[in-house]
Design goal:
The protein is α/β, with parallel strands linked by helices. Helix content is about 35%, strand content about 15%. Among the domains are: about 130 residues, Rossmann fold (3-Layer(aba) Sandwich), CATH 3.40.50; about 130 residues, Response regulator (Rossmann fold, 3-Layer(aba) Sandwich), CATH 3.40.50. It is built from 18 helices and 21 strands. A six-stranded mixed beta sheet has the order 4-5-15-12-13-14, with helices on both faces.
Amino acid sequence: MSHQRIVCLDCGHEDGYHPLNLFCPQCGGSWREARYDLNSAATLRRNFTQRPFNLWRYGELLPVSTLPPSLQLGEGGTPLLHTGKLGSMVGLPSLYLKDERQNSTISFKDRQAAVNVAAFIQHGIDEVVVASTGNVAIAYSAYCARAGIKLWAFITSLVPAVKMHEIALYGTRMVKVTGTYDQAKKLAAEFAEQRDLFLDRGARNIATIEAMKTIAFEIAEQLAGFHQSGDGPLFKAPDWYIQAVSGGMGPLGVLKGFQEMKAMGWIDRVPAIACIQTEGCAPMANAWKNNADAPIVVERPNTHISTLTTGNPGRSYELLRNRMLAGSGGVMESVSDEEAIRAMVTLARTEGLSIEPAAAVALAGTIKLATQGIFKLDDTVVINCSGHTVPIEYSQIPASWSRDIDLASSPLSERPHDGLLAALTLLDQKRTREILIVDDHPDARRLIKRILLSQAEYIIREAGSGPEALAEAQRNPPDLILLDLMMPEMDGFNVISHLKEETVTAAIPIIVITAKSLSREEQQYLDGQINRLMTKGDLLDGDLLDEVERSIQSGDMDE
């Protein structure tokens, strides 16, 4: 767009956009943003009805031209889903999910990757670096592969193995860092600086913030129902927009989008923003509750939800806080991992939607705020359903799918002398544990599998019947068996009996997960035969992973 300019947030200097221009040439500041002649941009409303409903529908309000059609992957244009059952449960009849699972790599980070890759192509950049907790690297991997751009991805070892495998599938040069996400970002920055490569810097990256604001544009169109008038489509803002937060780029971009629409007269208000974090890594939420001007840094995140482990969001918190306080308000809140998992299960069972744990954090936060009376009955509330949990097939990935860096044994100095080569260490030799899930209902197996893989690294195998389970356990004994009791042909009691009779399977730990109410005789039979009896309702209490770890450890001691 001809009226676009890049403005330094510190000194106000204006400059043109180039993805490699990371700092203000006037003051050296690293926080800048794109601004537009919104009086002129307001006329583009008339053009929308002739364009596809995707991210590029709003090209005049983006810092780059459209990604070539041959490289597009269907980014943007995701559904806005009304959640009637869940909404009625929490007292919000107008509760919606912006279903970002429908992007190509099943997360909202496809928007970020698409706009940045368009900028790379426009400016002739053919090698880039990202640090990621999973979704960003997956999205960049797909778009860079399609565009023929070499990608380096620095991944913390806390990222679930299934996401690492998908990154490797695209041919990305992946470096697994045994350390925190903030340490991985520091190492990626050093590597990019040494090689003079583009580095995605999260919320400080201009194209990323601009990409995220298209979520706001789409929501406003969708809530209006795509109504037409003589002046083009109408827009409607929600009362609340809610998103799980790590580094803050999503809410910053979405808030900017709503503010631009308000300035252009497209909407009559900017929604309140709710930023939700996990309790194990809540530098923003904790600072907000203490009315602090700066985030309360978390040095060592303590959460299984690896995509939300930015311990130091830096200035993102300041910008969000100031803009929220100066605008239509909002709140920052935190929830436990257990609350997020329960919310994830609840949504799947009430609305048939499987979401990633980070999106479940936003949902759990919404439920928590609703119980606190934050919302009014007639409020329209939109949650960013940021991604889907779908594992990649392990058999598709070669053995040498990553390089590992252990920062615990080789600490990273403020400026490592030899960059990446000095930090590369011995490969992580820890064996990934194998778990066999036995249940005749595929949905039950899928639910347990999602819960396990969202929180830890396991190799999951499945069996749909007793005979299949016995054959699988004999052929390749797992570290643990999760067993249903009520199955046709051969029930769980008979499976246990056969397992204990065979030397190769007798010592395998067993957790029984059942909906059946057991008689006294049945309970007595299981005593001493299994490690733990759980009901399927226990899955909502977040207790499964603890039991899995305890049972595997007990099996190790028995060997």
